[in-house]
Design a protein that fits this description.
This protein is α/β, with parallel strands linked by helices and 416 residues long. It has helices at residues 2-25, 42-50, 75-81, 126-132, 153-164, 212-223, 260-269, 297-307, 345-356, 372-377, 381-387, 392-398, 400-410, and strands at 58-63, 85-91, 108-111, 116-120, 138-142, 170-174, 186-189, 205-207, 228-232, 289-292, 312-319, 331-338, 366-367, 370-371. The strands form four sheets. Strands 3-4-2-1-5-6-9 form a seven-stranded mixed β-sheet, with helices on both faces. Strands 10-12-11 form a three-stranded antiparallel β-sheet. Strands 7-8 form a two-stranded antiparallel sheet.
Length: 416
């Protein structure tokens, strides 16, 4: 009986070791965080340390629903609590409350809950902003950015800085983490031939690997030297941190980035807004679902998994978008799983689009006679390289020098 009991214990121990070893080999489907100190936002540091210097000042606040602290208190309430008068509020794409999928046609509206006039940045120009800023002493910018040139919040920052060039009005940028900063800088530098006021305005590589505060310092140093700028930094932030490791709450910065995982995948999928597939807008998994009525999900899934794209897996699905592209139509496609680790979003995008191009129904979408993807990428080289059947490494080689030049300049403005 004793031998039997001893054998049972040994067997149980071996089983436990096998389970642990097996778990160590499993991929992570939920981006598990490492243990780290809580990050304090620029908003929290401003309220705690700097706001008293501006008591009695009149401020314009450029913000949206992402402008909250760790305890989910809004920046507007916190700023007012320090005796700063908010003369006007400016909201970027998707509006002050972050729910608008379509552009609001109004320039401004009164918000009784805030007791403020809210202006729509999408209908403003630098000249409009200069006129509005005549009644303020300071401008406070506090928005969660995504670290991508095509994500329009960085264009809003540029517009504000262009409006303040040569002005005595101080711009105070409250820094926030870059959710995809751990991936590094990636992609082509903006070609001025593909400038667009909202999706391709900021002069940087597609992924610039800077926080919004660092981006402001970079733009001032290189392009807008006459701006009176103050960046309130983060505390306990590291560039290699994933957002969930900051311990800050994930506030979806726009309606179609509901989770942190979706924002990571977005960096690779956003170029697909320039081709004739759905990127999952109008579903419960935007940017994690891609597909079209003309795609066979099993065939697509098998082909993508055979590509062996690092840190990504795919499963076949059908979905029916409730709005946006292919609204009300059944789409065959895949669900995209990011399983952890570093990767190049440009390489992932290049690989998936190159594979999709094998279908005879594939099309590059055009708007006004111009290819949409060229403005998302800030160059036509991405599209032309895929059309020519060139491998991703050749495209990366073509943009290597401009990425190197940008990283050299960018390094002068890094805070973390």
């Amino acid at each position: 009986m004793m031998n039997s009991g001893r054998n049972y214990c040994v067997a149980a121990l071996l089983l436990a070791v096998m389970v642990v070893a097996s778990c160590g080999r499993q991929v992570n489907y939920n981006v598990p965080p490492r243990k780290y100190k809580r990050v304090y936002t620029g908003l929290e540091n401003f309220i705690e340390n700097d706001a008293k210097k501006y008591r009695g000042k009149r401020a314009a606040v450029v913000t949206n629903h992402s402008g909250v602290d760790y305890h989910l208190r809004t920046n507007i309430d916190l700023i007012r609590s320090r005796g700063i008068e908010i003369a006007l509020v400016l909201a970027p794409e998707h509006g002050l409350y972050g729910y608008q999928n379509e552009y609001d046609s109004r320039l401004c509206q009164s918000d009784d809950g805030l007791n403020a006039i809210v202006y729509n940045m999408h209908h403003c120009t630098p000249a409009t902003l200069r006129y509005l800023f005549r009644v303020v002493d300071i401008v406070i910018f506090d928005i969660q950015d995504m670290g991508l040139r095509c994500y329009t919040y960085i264009s809003s920052l540029k517009m504000v800085m262009d409006a303040l060039c040569g002005s005595s009005i101080e711009l105070i940028v409250l820094d926030r983490p870059n959710p995809i900063g751990f991936l590094g800088a990636d992609g082509p530098f903006l070609n001025r031939d593909f400038y667009s006021r909202h999706v391709s305005a900021f002069p940087a590589t597609f992924m610039y690997n800077m926080t919004i505060g660092e981006a402001a310092a970079y733009y001032r140093g290189e392009f807008a030297k006459d701006v009176k700028l103050c960046v309130v930094p983060l505390k306990n932030y590291r560039r290699d941190l994933m957002y969930n490791e900051s311990m800050l709450p994930w506030i979806p910065p726009s309606p179609n980035l509901p989770t942190y995982e979706s924002s990571i995948v977005y960096a690779s999928i956003v170029f697909m807004e320039g081709i004739n597939i759905s990127v999952g807008r109008g579903t419960t998994k935007p940017f994690e679902y891609i597909g079209a009525p003309w795609l066979d999900p099993a065939v697509l899934c098998d082909g993508l998994n055979r590509l062996g794209i690092k840190n990504f897996k795919f499963r076949p699905i059908y979905f029916n978008p409730t709005f946006s592209k292919y609204k009300g139509e059944r789409c065959g496609g895949v669900q995209i799983f990011y399983v952890g680790g570093e990767f190049s979003p440009l390489e992932v995008s290049y690989a998936i689009i190159s594979h999709l191009k094998k279908w005879p129904w594939f099309r590059w979408e055009q708007y006004g006679g111009q290819y949409s993807v060229d403005f998302l990428a800030g160059t036509d080289l991405f599209r032309k390289s895929i059309d020519a059947g060139r491998p991703s490494r050749q495209f990366q080689e073509d943009i290597k020098d401009e990425m190197k030049d940008f990283n050299r300049v960018r390094s002068k403005y890094l805070i973390y």
